[in-house]
Amino acid sequence: MTRPYTDYLDEILITTEQLQKRVAELGAQISADYSGQDLLLVCILKGGVMFLTDLMRQITVPHAIDFMAVTSYGAGTRESTGVVRILMDLEIDISGRNVLLVEDIIDSGHTLDYITRMLRARRPASLRIVTLLDKAERREVDVKLDYVGFKISNKFVFGYGLDLDEVYRNLLFIGVVRPEAFIPS
Ligand code: IMP
Ligand code: MG
């Protein structure tokens, strides 16, 4: 995919200004909730990375960060199957820690359900979820979200960490894909 993003863009769904404002609000809320407490942000690669780096700048509580990379079988398609494989595990031992999982988007919920089961088995003191985007109407597994940036409708989106076949994660806004222009490989 080497074409300019404009070839795939139907419309801008969330502007840079809207993203920055909402991320600042989430950061303030998280800072208040974890005031005086231990905090470890766990970012799910790769989609969560833009959100993490903006969010952590807005969190005033001292905190550590760590990363985990997973893949859903069926990745590359638009459907996730619930069968998740860990490509890269955390470096930090989360037992007894207050973990805040940083996600880009919750769609069916299968990926998050798997990750939270696995992390809970490691006995963190607490485990909460912050997601930038929530496609609630696509949910197949009930997962509890503690902080949500934006609820969005069932449209395939890209930018601000989210990819089209691994490209365009750098865009500073969330865009809707022109359905006829992008067929996932
Ligand atoms: P779930 O397991 O169905 O909740 O899928 C979550 C994952 O699917 C996310 O972490 C994304 O990688 C991917 N995904 C779901 N919807 C979109 C989208 O609209 N754009 C880009 N990636 C998406
Ligand atoms: Mg993806």
SS elements, strand count: 9
Percent in helix = 10-25%
**Bound molecule kinds, no repeats:** inosinic acid, magnesium ion
Distance between the termini: 11 Å
Low-confidence stretches: none
Architecture, according to CATH?
Answer: 3-Layer(aba) Sandwich
Which properties best describe this structure?
185 residues, alpha/beta, Rossmann fold, 6-stranded mixed beta sheet, 3-stranded antiparallel beta sheet, 21% helix, binds inosinic acid, binds magnesium ion
Task: Give a verbal description of the structure.
The structure is a single chain. This protein is of the alpha/beta class and 185 residues long. It is built from 3 helices and 9 strands; from the N terminus they run βαβαβββαββββ. It has a 6-stranded mixed sheet with strand order 4-3-2-5-6-7, sandwiched between helices. α2 (49-57) links the parallel β2 and β3. The protein is globular and about 50 Å long. The structure holds inosinic acid and magnesium ion. The site of magnesium ion has 2 residues, from loops. Magnesium ion binds at residues 47, 163.
